[in-house]
Design brief:
The chain has 292 residues and is mostly helical. The chain has eleven helices and no strands. The longest helix has 37 residues. The mean pLDDT is 87.
């Protein structure tokens, strides 16, 4: 009976994790598809994504069995960082391919979090330093000037989105109820997104297809994606959770090839190996230190 239960638990963990990673990769694909073919501007896409995500998460938190704990003081920094991530993410995908954008985003997120660890006194061994330098070098190589380089403005915007998401993730460490906290942050970010849409009202262009893709990104791959991810996290170690996210840029890249006819350039492939391999080296070293 115990073996059967363990088998079911493992299968659930694999299924939930796979679904969450697909959802996170799909965010890049949905945004790129909406801006490229859906007839919507980035400010409107970001606003609709945040509003639909906030509504979805509010409903999930409201009707779940477990009552939410007391919230304590209001913290607006995570909401501002969430808004910054969504806004810069949306504008970056005006010019970036799905795979390139996801790789820059993921690299910036992880380097921000690793840099914060170094700043707080965390010690890196030689292997971890090698991985950190390799990942940072891969990111610099990806965006360095050249024929195959991604557009500079888009790359910078996505890097800023990654830093914002890294700060958001660091701020959310140790919260009592991450799902409810995410829902509150989405709700607080909505007025900021609406203000951005009003600022770009003269350029607003919201077609039915673009709006539907933005709702899908907010309600499904963001809102419900986080619900699935938090369910998966309960079955994963910290090392497993960090490592499995290495798949997101690759899933986005292959999704871009299949759905958007995007190309995987030699530069993107080499940068992917450097960035993802470097981060994997850091994570493996941190895992070994944690078990000593």
């Amino acid at each position: 009976m115990s073996e059967a239960h363990d088998g079911r638990s493992t299968l659930q963990a694999v299924a939930l994790t796979a679904a969450a990673m697909l959802a996170f990769a799909a965010n890049s694909l949905l945004c790129r598809l909406a801006l490229q073919h859906g007839g919507i501007d980035p400010a409107s896409f970001g606003s609709i994504r945040l509003v639909s995500g906030a509504i979805t998460l509010a409903l999930v938190v409201r009707f779940r069995v477990q009552p939410p704990p007391s919230t304590g003081r209001t913290d607006w920094l995570p909401a501002v960082m969430l808004f910054a991530y969504v806004a810069f993410f949306s504008f970056a995908y005006l010019s970036l391919s799905a795979g390139t954008g996801a790789l820059i985003l993921f690299g910036a997120v992880q380097l921000t979090m690793l840099g914060a660890g170094l700043g707080s006194g965390e010690r890196f061994g030689p292997v971890a330093w090698l991985g950190f330098v390799l990942a940072a070098g891969g990111l610099v190589y990806l965006v360095s000037p050249g024929i195959a380089a991604p557009p500079l403005v888009g790359a910078v915007l996505m890097a800023i989105a990654g830093v914002a998401w890294g700060v958001y993730s660091l701020r959310g460490r140790g919260v009592a109820d991450p799902l409810a906290a995410t829902g509150r942050n989405f709700m607080r970010a909505v007025p900021l997104a609406i203000a951005l849409s009003l600022a770009f009202l003269a350029r607003a262009d919201v077609g039915a297809t673009g709006a539907a893709l933005a709702v899908a990104s907010g309600a499904l791959t963001s809102g419900l994606g986080y619900v699935v991810w938090y369910a998966a996290l309960a079955r994963l170690s910290a090392m497993q959770a960090a490592t499995v996210q290495l798949s997101v840029p690759l899933l986005a890249a292959f999704g871009g090839v299949l759905l958007l006819s995007e190309a995987i350039t030699p530069r993107l492939a080499a940068a992917s190996v450097a960035i993802l391999g470097g981060i994997a080296l850091v994570l493996s070293q941190k895992s070994r230190n944690a078990h000593r």
